[in-house]
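Lecture notes, unit on protein representations.

Consider one protein chain, 284 amino acids long.
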Amino acid sequence: MGRVDLFVTDRCNQACVFCYLYSPEFRSKGGAFPMRDVTSALDAGRKRGYEEVYISGGEPTVCRDFARIVREARERGYLKVKVMTNGVRFADPEFAGSLADAGLTHVALSVHGPTPAVYAATHGRGADLGRVVKAVQNLKSLAPGLSLEVNAVTTAGNVDALPALGRWVEAMGLERLHVQLLVPNSRASAAHFPGHRRAAEAFLRLVDAWGRRLRLNCAFFPPCTLPGREDLCVEFDFTTSFFTNRPDMILSWQRSLLAAKRTVPACEGCPWWRSCRGFWLPED
């Protein structure tokens, strides 16, 4: 893949209703993962010629070594250092500035609702959409060259708000929105799975409303549920070996994803089989 995937903590300052953090393969002892494993992965990645680092968790910004990890990645010559974050700590200008100084290049903000009510219902503990708005403002002013995008997981509670989320993203002055279908192998997933058809219909409404003004794509949607728009599906190869500081977690996650799939006769011979592998359970 040409990138290093770093898991830096299994702690979080929110409690999203669907989060895989509570799955067994993503639990560790003590919260933070050893810094020596992180730097070892960074060194090995550079020896392979990799130029990208992707940092996630848990919530990476609660890791006490977060800024150090960003800085060490940049000092080793990585050109792209991206973090997946709920963004709330970036509402603090000092914190946002420190990460800009460390060399952070890309931020993917997890925003699962475009209104305070939907956001709070999905993000749980400590959820305040206003802090994300402030975070965007800080990052745009303190790090004008930073790439900002929004990532949203589609659940039964926010699926109908997808078109409104497109409006929110544009209002924030952002251009990219990535929509991920809930993976039903994690916390409370059965209750929160929106159903393939309902999720696909909502995503297509988002595309119809904002496809010419925003850069949109999606993940974990079976491409056959988006006829004519399969090109918007990000391919996930279930056979890919990720280069990471926690290969055990990645392998366990891949196995659990496949275990949550079912197939139908139409899957046989499908050109998207390698990156799809069927439909998520539970069924619609």
